[in-house]
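lol so apparently i was supposed to do this last week
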Amino acid sequence: MSHRAGFVSIIGKPNAGKSTLMNALVGENMSIITPKAQTTRHRILGIVNTEDYQIVFSDTPGVIKPAYPLQESMMHQVNGSIVDADLILLMTDVNEKHDESDVIERLQGSLAPLAILVNKIDQSNEETVKQKIAYWQEKLQPKAIFAISALHKHNIQSIMDFIVDNLPEHPAYYEKDFLTDRNDRFFASEMIREQVFKQYQKEIPYSTEVIITSFKEGDTLHRISAEIIVERDSQKNILIGKNGEMLKIVGTYARKSMEEFFQRKIFLELFVKVIPDWRSKKNYLKQFGYED
Ligand SMILES: Nc1nc2c(ncn2[C@@H]2O[C@H](COP(=O)(O)OP(=O)(O)OP(=O)(O)O)[C@@H](O)[C@H]2O)c(=O)[nH]1
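anyway here it is w/ guanosine-5'-triphosphate bound
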Protein backbone atom coordinates (compact mmCIF):
# COMPACT_ATOMS: atom_id res chain seq x y z
CA MET A 1 0.00 0.00 0.00
CA SER A 2 1.30 3.47 -0.77
CA HIS A 3 2.11 6.03 1.90
CA ARG A 4 -0.63 8.17 3.43
CA ALA A 5 -0.32 11.54 5.12
CA GLY A 6 -2.59 14.39 6.10
CA PHE A 7 -3.58 17.20 8.42
CA VAL A 8 -6.26 16.44 11.00
CA SER A 9 -7.70 19.43 12.87
CA ILE A 10 -9.41 19.17 16.24
CA ILE A 11 -12.02 21.94 16.45
CA GLY A 12 -14.61 22.78 19.09
CA LYS A 13 -15.78 25.03 21.89
CA PRO A 14 -13.53 25.90 24.87
CA ASN A 15 -13.26 23.11 27.42
CA ALA A 16 -14.73 20.41 25.14
CA GLY A 17 -11.61 18.28 25.68
CA LYS A 18 -9.60 19.00 22.50
CA SER A 19 -6.20 19.07 24.18
CA THR A 20 -6.99 15.94 26.18
CA LEU A 21 -7.86 14.15 22.95
CA MET A 22 -4.77 15.38 21.13
CA ASN A 23 -2.54 14.10 23.94
CA ALA A 24 -4.34 10.75 23.94
CA LEU A 25 -3.97 10.40 20.16
CA VAL A 26 -0.33 11.47 20.07
CA GLY A 27 0.61 9.64 23.26
CA GLU A 28 2.54 12.64 24.65
CA ASN A 29 1.60 15.62 26.78
CA MET A 30 1.90 18.20 24.04
CA SER A 31 -1.01 20.41 25.00
CA ILE A 32 -1.63 21.71 28.46
CA ILE A 33 -4.95 20.79 30.02
CA THR A 34 -6.78 22.69 32.73
CA PRO A 35 -10.41 22.83 33.90
CA LYS A 36 -10.66 26.45 32.68
CA ALA A 37 -11.93 27.48 29.27
CA GLN A 38 -9.57 29.03 26.72
CA THR A 39 -6.45 27.32 28.00
CA THR A 40 -5.11 26.67 24.52
CA ARG A 41 -4.05 29.86 22.75
CA HIS A 42 -2.00 28.58 19.84
CA ARG A 43 -2.43 26.01 17.17
CA ILE A 44 -0.12 23.17 18.16
CA LEU A 45 0.91 20.36 15.84
CA GLY A 46 1.30 16.83 17.21
CA ILE A 47 2.55 14.25 14.74
CA VAL A 48 2.04 10.48 14.72
CA ASN A 49 4.46 8.57 12.50
CA THR A 50 4.54 4.97 11.33
CA GLU A 51 6.20 3.42 8.33
CA ASP A 52 2.94 3.61 6.35
CA TYR A 53 1.49 6.94 7.37
CA GLN A 54 1.97 10.32 9.01
CA ILE A 55 -0.89 12.07 10.82
CA VAL A 56 -0.38 15.75 11.57
CA PHE A 57 -2.86 16.71 14.29
CA SER A 58 -3.65 20.34 15.09
CA ASP A 59 -4.93 21.18 18.55
CA THR A 60 -6.63 24.58 18.31
CA PRO A 61 -8.00 27.25 20.65
CA GLY A 62 -11.69 26.86 21.53
CA VAL A 63 -14.10 28.73 19.27
CA ILE A 64 -15.43 31.92 20.87
CA LYS A 65 -16.67 35.34 19.80
CA PRO A 66 -13.47 37.37 20.14
CA ALA A 67 -13.65 40.26 22.60
CA TYR A 68 -10.08 41.56 22.31
CA PRO A 69 -7.16 41.24 19.85
CA LEU A 70 -5.56 38.24 21.59
CA GLN A 71 -8.79 36.30 21.02
CA GLU A 72 -8.95 37.52 17.41
CA SER A 73 -5.52 36.02 16.86
CA MET A 74 -6.69 32.78 18.49
CA MET A 75 -9.63 32.60 16.04
CA HIS A 76 -7.32 33.23 13.05
CA GLN A 77 -5.43 30.13 14.13
CA VAL A 78 -8.66 28.13 14.21
CA ASN A 79 -9.56 29.31 10.70
CA GLY A 80 -6.08 28.48 9.43
CA SER A 81 -6.27 24.95 10.69
CA ILE A 82 -9.74 24.45 9.15
CA VAL A 83 -8.43 25.59 5.77
CA ASP A 84 -5.43 23.24 5.98
CA ALA A 85 -7.39 20.20 7.14
CA ASP A 86 -7.67 16.94 5.20
CA LEU A 87 -9.98 15.74 7.94
CA ILE A 88 -11.82 17.60 10.71
CA LEU A 89 -12.64 16.23 14.14
CA LEU A 90 -15.40 18.31 15.69
CA MET A 91 -15.16 17.90 19.45
CA THR A 92 -18.35 18.39 21.45
CA ASP A 93 -19.11 17.95 25.12
CA VAL A 94 -22.08 15.61 25.58
CA ASN A 95 -23.37 17.94 28.31
CA GLU A 96 -23.00 21.15 26.28
CA LYS A 97 -26.20 23.11 26.80
CA HIS A 98 -25.62 25.99 24.39
CA ASP A 99 -25.95 25.60 20.68
CA GLU A 100 -22.69 25.36 18.81
CA SER A 101 -23.66 27.55 15.86
CA ASP A 102 -20.45 29.59 16.08
CA VAL A 103 -18.37 26.42 15.61
CA ILE A 104 -20.61 25.14 12.82
CA GLU A 105 -20.40 28.50 11.02
CA ARG A 106 -16.63 28.30 10.95
CA LEU A 107 -16.74 24.83 9.42
CA GLN A 108 -18.93 25.94 6.53
CA GLY A 109 -17.01 26.13 3.32
CA SER A 110 -14.64 23.33 4.32
CA LEU A 111 -14.78 20.32 2.02
CA ALA A 112 -12.77 18.08 4.36
CA PRO A 113 -14.55 14.98 5.67
CA LEU A 114 -15.98 15.57 9.13
CA ALA A 115 -16.12 13.27 12.14
CA ILE A 116 -18.01 14.36 15.23
CA LEU A 117 -16.75 13.30 18.63
CA VAL A 118 -19.26 13.33 21.47
CA ASN A 119 -16.92 13.59 24.45
CA LYS A 120 -17.17 13.11 28.24
CA ILE A 121 -19.61 10.23 27.98
CA ASP A 122 -18.26 9.12 31.37
CA GLN A 123 -20.32 12.05 32.71
CA SER A 124 -23.49 11.04 30.94
CA ASN A 125 -25.90 8.16 30.34
CA GLU A 126 -26.81 6.00 27.38
CA GLU A 127 -30.03 7.84 26.60
CA THR A 128 -28.40 11.29 26.46
CA VAL A 129 -25.53 9.99 24.35
CA LYS A 130 -28.01 8.46 21.88
CA GLN A 131 -29.93 11.70 21.67
CA LYS A 132 -26.76 13.69 21.01
CA ILE A 133 -25.68 11.30 18.28
CA ALA A 134 -29.09 11.61 16.59
CA TYR A 135 -28.91 15.41 16.94
CA TRP A 136 -25.51 15.67 15.26
CA GLN A 137 -26.40 13.13 12.60
CA GLU A 138 -29.33 15.24 11.50
CA LYS A 139 -27.59 18.59 11.93
CA LEU A 140 -24.38 17.98 9.98
CA GLN A 141 -24.53 14.52 8.39
CA PRO A 142 -20.90 13.79 9.28
CA LYS A 143 -18.93 10.91 7.83
CA ALA A 144 -18.75 9.35 11.30
CA ILE A 145 -19.77 10.01 14.90
CA PHE A 146 -17.91 8.61 17.89
CA ALA A 147 -19.05 8.62 21.50
CA ILE A 148 -15.85 8.91 23.51
CA SER A 149 -14.15 9.78 26.75
CA ALA A 150 -10.86 11.46 25.94
CA LEU A 151 -10.00 11.54 29.63
CA HIS A 152 -10.44 7.78 30.08
CA LYS A 153 -9.08 7.01 26.59
CA HIS A 154 -12.34 5.31 25.70
CA ASN A 155 -12.89 4.73 21.95
CA ILE A 156 -9.66 6.50 20.99
CA GLN A 157 -8.49 3.55 18.90
CA SER A 158 -11.66 3.67 16.76
CA ILE A 159 -10.93 7.31 15.98
CA MET A 160 -7.36 6.42 15.01
CA ASP A 161 -8.60 3.65 12.71
CA PHE A 162 -11.09 6.03 11.10
CA ILE A 163 -8.41 8.65 10.54
CA VAL A 164 -5.96 6.22 8.96
CA ASP A 165 -8.70 4.90 6.66
CA ASN A 166 -9.50 8.41 5.53
CA LEU A 167 -5.99 9.82 5.10
CA PRO A 168 -5.11 10.85 1.55
CA GLU A 169 -2.30 9.08 -0.25
CA HIS A 170 0.58 11.48 0.13
CA PRO A 171 4.28 11.49 1.00
CA ALA A 172 5.20 12.54 4.55
CA TYR A 173 5.05 16.29 5.16
CA TYR A 174 7.69 16.23 7.90
CA GLU A 175 10.68 14.11 8.79
CA LYS A 176 9.52 10.90 10.43
CA ASP A 177 11.26 11.68 13.74
CA PHE A 178 9.46 15.04 13.96
CA LEU A 179 6.80 15.05 16.72
CA THR A 180 5.72 18.68 16.89
CA ASP A 181 6.32 22.13 15.37
CA ARG A 182 6.96 23.62 18.81
CA ASN A 183 10.33 23.86 20.56
CA ASP A 184 11.41 23.26 24.15
CA ARG A 185 11.04 26.93 25.07
CA PHE A 186 7.40 26.82 24.00
CA PHE A 187 6.68 23.73 26.11
CA ALA A 188 8.48 25.25 29.09
CA SER A 189 6.38 28.43 28.87
CA GLU A 190 3.19 26.36 28.50
CA MET A 191 3.96 24.37 31.64
CA ILE A 192 4.23 27.62 33.60
CA ARG A 193 1.03 28.96 32.02
CA GLU A 194 -0.71 25.71 32.94
CA GLN A 195 0.06 26.36 36.62
CA VAL A 196 -1.14 29.96 36.36
CA PHE A 197 -4.44 28.62 34.96
CA LYS A 198 -4.66 26.08 37.75
CA GLN A 199 -3.64 28.19 40.75
CA TYR A 200 -5.48 31.50 40.18
CA GLN A 201 -9.10 32.51 39.75
CA LYS A 202 -11.05 35.08 37.79
CA GLU A 203 -9.22 37.15 35.23
CA ILE A 204 -5.62 36.40 36.26
CA PRO A 205 -5.07 33.43 33.89
CA TYR A 206 -6.55 35.31 30.95
CA SER A 207 -4.38 38.37 31.62
CA THR A 208 -1.18 36.36 31.77
CA GLU A 209 1.52 35.53 29.26
CA VAL A 210 4.75 33.67 29.94
CA ILE A 211 8.03 34.52 28.22
CA ILE A 212 11.10 32.34 28.53
CA THR A 213 13.98 34.81 28.85
CA SER A 214 16.78 32.25 29.15
CA PHE A 215 17.01 28.52 28.47
CA LYS A 216 20.40 26.96 29.11
CA GLU A 217 20.49 23.29 28.25
CA GLY A 218 22.66 20.83 30.10
CA ASP A 219 23.07 17.07 30.07
CA THR A 220 21.76 16.69 33.59
CA LEU A 221 20.23 20.11 34.30
CA HIS A 222 18.36 22.79 32.31
CA ARG A 223 18.50 26.35 33.68
CA ILE A 224 15.36 28.24 32.74
CA SER A 225 14.35 31.84 33.49
CA ALA A 226 10.90 33.14 32.70
CA GLU A 227 8.86 36.30 32.99
CA ILE A 228 5.19 36.08 33.83
CA ILE A 229 3.51 39.09 32.25
CA VAL A 230 0.31 40.56 33.70
CA GLU A 231 -1.68 43.65 32.80
CA ARG A 232 -1.87 45.54 36.10
CA ASP A 233 0.03 46.07 39.38
CA SER A 234 -2.87 44.59 41.34
CA GLN A 235 -2.53 41.37 39.34
CA LYS A 236 1.19 41.32 39.98
CA ASN A 237 0.54 41.40 43.73
CA ILE A 238 -1.97 38.54 43.51
CA LEU A 239 0.37 36.51 41.35
CA ILE A 240 3.26 36.85 43.76
CA GLY A 241 1.10 36.39 46.87
CA LYS A 242 1.97 37.07 50.50
CA ASN A 243 5.73 36.65 50.98
CA GLY A 244 5.95 35.25 47.46
CA GLU A 245 4.06 32.13 48.47
CA MET A 246 1.81 31.85 45.43
CA LEU A 247 4.61 32.32 42.94
CA LYS A 248 6.57 29.67 44.76
CA ILE A 249 3.72 27.18 44.30
CA VAL A 250 3.55 27.96 40.57
CA GLY A 251 7.31 27.52 40.29
CA THR A 252 7.36 24.23 42.18
CA TYR A 253 4.62 22.57 40.13
CA ALA A 254 5.91 23.95 36.83
CA ARG A 255 9.40 22.67 37.66
CA LYS A 256 8.03 19.21 38.41
CA SER A 257 6.19 19.10 35.07
CA MET A 258 9.34 20.21 33.28
CA GLU A 259 11.50 17.62 35.01
CA GLU A 260 9.15 14.92 33.79
CA PHE A 261 8.86 16.37 30.28
CA PHE A 262 12.58 17.04 29.72
CA GLN A 263 13.80 14.09 31.82
CA ARG A 264 16.31 16.37 33.53
CA LYS A 265 16.70 18.32 36.73
CA ILE A 266 15.36 21.83 36.22
CA PHE A 267 16.49 25.06 37.83
CA LEU A 268 13.61 27.51 37.34
CA GLU A 269 13.60 31.24 38.05
CA LEU A 270 10.38 33.26 37.75
CA PHE A 271 9.90 37.04 37.53
CA VAL A 272 6.66 38.97 37.28
CA LYS A 273 6.33 41.99 35.00
CA VAL A 274 3.48 44.39 34.24
CA ILE A 275 2.73 45.36 30.65
CA PRO A 276 -0.51 47.37 30.68
CA ASP A 277 -3.15 45.99 28.29
CA TRP A 278 -0.76 43.67 26.42
CA ARG A 279 -3.68 41.55 25.14
CA SER A 280 -4.95 44.48 23.09
CA LYS A 281 -1.65 45.74 21.71
CA LYS A 282 -0.60 44.44 18.32
CA ASN A 283 3.11 44.97 18.90
CA TYR A 284 3.13 42.82 22.05
CA LEU A 285 0.91 40.15 20.51
CA LYS A 286 3.36 39.95 17.63
CA GLN A 287 6.34 39.80 19.97
CA PHE A 288 4.63 37.01 21.94
CA GLY A 289 4.03 34.97 18.78
CA TYR A 290 0.32 35.55 18.21
CA GLU A 291 0.28 37.35 14.87
CA ASP A 292 1.50 35.53 11.84
N1 LIG B 1 -15.02 13.81 32.64
C1 LIG B 1 -14.29 14.08 31.57
N2 LIG B 1 -13.56 15.21 31.54
C2 LIG B 1 -12.84 15.47 30.43
C3 LIG B 1 -12.83 14.59 29.30
N3 LIG B 1 -12.03 15.13 28.37
C4 LIG B 1 -11.54 16.28 28.89
N4 LIG B 1 -12.02 16.50 30.13
C5 LIG B 1 -11.73 17.62 31.04
O1 LIG B 1 -12.24 18.81 30.49
C6 LIG B 1 -11.40 19.93 30.84
C7 LIG B 1 -10.98 20.67 29.57
O2 LIG B 1 -10.14 19.82 28.80
P1 LIG B 1 -9.17 20.38 27.68
O3 LIG B 1 -8.60 19.21 26.97
O4 LIG B 1 -8.23 21.41 28.24
O5 LIG B 1 -10.24 21.13 26.76
P2 LIG B 1 -10.00 22.04 25.46
O6 LIG B 1 -11.14 21.79 24.54
O7 LIG B 1 -8.63 21.83 24.90
O8 LIG B 1 -10.10 23.48 26.10
P3 LIG B 1 -9.62 24.96 25.54
O9 LIG B 1 -8.15 25.02 25.68
O10 LIG B 1 -10.35 25.88 26.46
O11 LIG B 1 -10.12 25.09 24.14
C8 LIG B 1 -10.23 19.33 31.62
O12 LIG B 1 -10.51 19.50 32.99
C9 LIG B 1 -10.24 17.88 31.21
O13 LIG B 1 -9.69 17.02 32.19
C10 LIG B 1 -13.63 13.38 29.38
O14 LIG B 1 -13.68 12.54 28.48
N5 LIG B 1 -14.33 13.20 30.54
